[in-house]
Every structure is written in C-alpha cells, then in structure tokens.
Amino acid sequence: MEGASFGAGRAGGAVDPLDFLKQPQTILRATAWIFSIVVFGSIVNECYVNKDGTDPELHCIFNENESACSYGIAIGIIAFFGCIFFLVVDLQFQQISSVKDRKRAVLLDLGFSGFLSFLWFVAFCFLANQWQRTTMSKGASQGADAARAAIAFSFFSIIVWVALALKALQRYRLGTDMSLFATDQFATDPNAAYPGYPTGSGIESTETYQSPPFTETSDANPKGYQVPAY
C-alpha cells in the first residue's frame, strides 16, 4: 500500500467496513475463529462418551485420555478469543497515531500467530496419535465423526495461523513511511530553504549606508576658535 505505515494508511483516516471485511487478513481471522469453534465445540459436545454405551461415567473419546480432550478445548478457546482480540486491533489499527504502538501491535500479532501455529500443530499430532490408539466401542463409534472433525480442523488451523503469521511478517517488513507523521511545514527537499526564511542572492550589496568621514574644515569651528598649543 502506497504511503502506508505497517500496512495501514494515515492515522485518523476513516475505515470502510466493506474494504475491511474484504482484506485477506480479516478473512483469515474469521476462518481461524470458525475453525476454533468447530474444534472445541466438537470435543465438548460429542467427544465425551460412555465406554460401552451403558456406563454412566463419561470418558474422553481419544483413548480415554482426558489430557487430549482438555488440550483441544483449551487451544480452541485461546484461538477463539485471540481472533476476536486481533479483529478489534485490526479495526482500530488505522486510528493508532504512534509508530511505536503500531510496531508493537504488529509484533504482538506476529508472535501470537506463530505461537498458535505451533500449539495447533501439537494439538493435531496429539489428537491424531490418541485417536489411532483408541479402541472402538459403541460409545466411541457414536462420537467418531466429531473426533475426526476435531483432528481435521486442527490441521486446517495450522495452515490458517501460519498464513496469519506470514501476513504479520509482511506488514512488519513494510516498515513505516515517516512522511505520514511529518508536519506540512517541512519541505520534502532537504536542500530547500526553511519556509519563511528570507532568501537572497548570496552576494553582499556594496550599496550599503556609510557614514561620511570626519573632515577638519573651517565649518566644523565656525567661530575660528583654536585650541591653544602647550
């Protein structure tokens, strides 16, 4: 974006809602938000099942490993609220006038997106491994589709969060155009004169006022008075 500061225009500019919704970064965040809902929603609603269909106690469908279900739910919730937070940051980003604050926001986005990419990778590997070790039973068969959905969308979340991290890195590399934050009174040409300073030809004029030389004439002493010599 021409004349942009970390991917956004001049501070204080109006934000067009349609343009904001069409931005790739907004689409990726909305997609990551939906994927997080699918993951933790599937685990909470259908991945706690009876072992044989008659046992009243519920167990995690992933090899009865409670840590697998807890981890999937936790990552889904973190991603859910993280997407909402950074959507608000993106919406208000153009209102941030400080270059340092914009830089911190982009670095926070980069770090969070990279960290979530790693967490989703761990979640995918963990859930997939535990699902392979799961002994199929009547209860497990009932929640099998939900378990597969959680694993699949964990994998899709890796791709989306990696894309968000790359977008944040791209914005950081764009840097900042300091001309957006310069006042209008400074000229763009560094060799130009400061506004309001009178400029001349650079040659000192010889027609300057000079006082007449002191001359000893009789007019200087009209009465003819002479100073006696000692």
UniProtKB/TrEMBL annotation:
It is found in: Membrane. This is Synaptogyrin. GO terms for cellular component: neuromuscular junction; synaptic vesicle membrane. Belongs to the synaptogyrin family. Residues 20-173 form the MARVEL domain. It is a multi-pass membrane protein. Its main location: membrane.
